[in-house]
Specification:
Blueprint (H helix, E strand, L loop, with lengths): L4 E7 L14 H5 L7 H14 L6 E7 L8 H17 L4 E6 L6 H9 L2 E9 L3 H7 L5 H13 L3 E8 L6 H13 L4 E6 L2 E2 L3 H7 L8 H18 L2 E5 L5 H5 L3 E3 L6 H17 L6 E6 L4 H5 L4 H7 L4 E6 L8 E5 L1
Parallel strand pairs: 1-2, 2-3, 3-4, 4-5, 5-6, 6-8, 10-11
Antiparallel strand pairs: 7-9, 10-12
Helix pairs in contact: 7-9, 9-11
Length: 335
């Protein structure tokens, strides 16, 4: 059985990044305006370790939020060295980080390997040149291609992060980006619908009526389609939708866009409804679905949406979890 995986997130907002993408205000998203000092990083690690199971787990410290490899090597190593004793003791199994595709080189990767980084996630956001330019990313598609290539060749788990609903983006362009991510051989992906945050260029465009964000229905529908594409290609979808601090949506910094605290659940509800709908055949009073335990809640749906939908068609609806069924397989019986 696969060991449960846990990340200990350490956010480094906007550190080392010379670009200000149209959608970006890392302080409003993370709730932090300054990078953590070494003592704070140790406290974050210790606090998280207290909440995790002590056996049968895989734990990684994850440096997210900024462009980690844009830091001076000395600063990178200060953070990375804080984790080494935990790896030596077996409390933590490795490190993952996020960075920009144009901040990757052979020398950087050599140092990260030495410091026992296991996974690198690139903020690709889109693999369409026009969308990248309109978003102010400051890099090209080719930068993503080359960075992904050398990261994979160096033996790191390779993740790509994409966004939907950026200025100039379309459903077709997002799907094309997904197909390109698959063709690049990514191991993992994160999908983030674009949100309009205060104190960003996108907020200005939104107020001027020059940018229209996706609706929640549009974003969850597209992400459901993207999830199926990635899942069928063997790319592990680590997350769908932003998981910000409480102040992000309760304190007024979110202006517009398809945010929902259970965004990923809404997407998986759509994925399972579509799958169940395609499999329905025959007549009867009872429908019985057997699914893997990890997918039981998703199959039932957010706030039991799929169960309620089936209850409109059948007098009795039964969901059963079964460990013999593969994670995304299911069986359905109508009688």
């Amino acid at each position: 059985m696969k060991r449960p995986h846990f990340n200990i997130p350490v956010f480094i907002p906007e550190l080392a990044c010379p670009f200000r993408c149209v959608y970006c205000n890392q302080y409003n998203i993370s709730g932090r305006c300054a990078p953590p000092d070494p003592g704070q990083v140790i406290n974050i690690i210790e606090d998280h370790l207290l909440t995790l199971p002590t056996e049968g787990r895989t734990v990684e410290v994850a440096f997210f939020g900024g462009s980690f490899t844009g830091l001076a090597m000395e600063q990178q190593n200060i953070y990375l060295d804080l984790v080494q004793n935990y790896i030596d003791s077996g409390l933590i199994q490795g490190i993952r980080l996020s960075t920009r595709p144009d901040y990757i080189s052979a020398s950087i990767l050599h140092n990260l390997k030495k410091k026992r980084v296991r996974a690198i996630e690139l903020g690709a956001q889109s693999l369409d040149e026009e969308v990248l330019a309109m978003a102010g990313r400051g890099h090209k598609v080719e930068d993503v291609v080359q960075a992904t290539k050398i990261i994979r060749e160096a033996g790191f788990e390779t993740g790509l992060q994409m966004m939907t609903g950026l200025p100039g983006d379309t459903t077709e362009k997002s799907l094309t980006t997904a197909h390109k991510i698959i063709s690049l051989g990514a191991d993992t992906v994160r999908i983030y619908p674009t949100l309009v945050i205060e104190d960003t260029d996108l907020a200005y465009l939104y107020r001027q009526g020059k940018y229209h964000p996706q609706t929640l229905e549009e974003a969850t529908g597209l992400c459901a389609e993207l999830f199926v594409l990635f899942n069928e290609a063997g790319v592990n979808v680590l997350r769908m939708g932003l998981h910000p601090s409480e102040t992000f949506y309760d304190g007024g910094s979110l202006l517009a866009g398809p945010f929902h605290p259970a965004f990923g659940e809404l997407v998986m509800t759509k994925v399972w409804k579509h799958r169940i709908e395609k499999a329905l055949s025959g007549k009867g009073n009872t429908v019985e679905l057997q699914v893997h335990p990890s997918q039981l809640n998703a199959a039932i749906g957010h706030k039991a949406a799929n169960k309620k939908w089936l209850a409109e068609k059948f007098q009795r609806v039964v969901f059963i979890s079964h460990t013999d069924i593969e994670k995304y397989d299911f069986s359905i019986n109508i009688y």
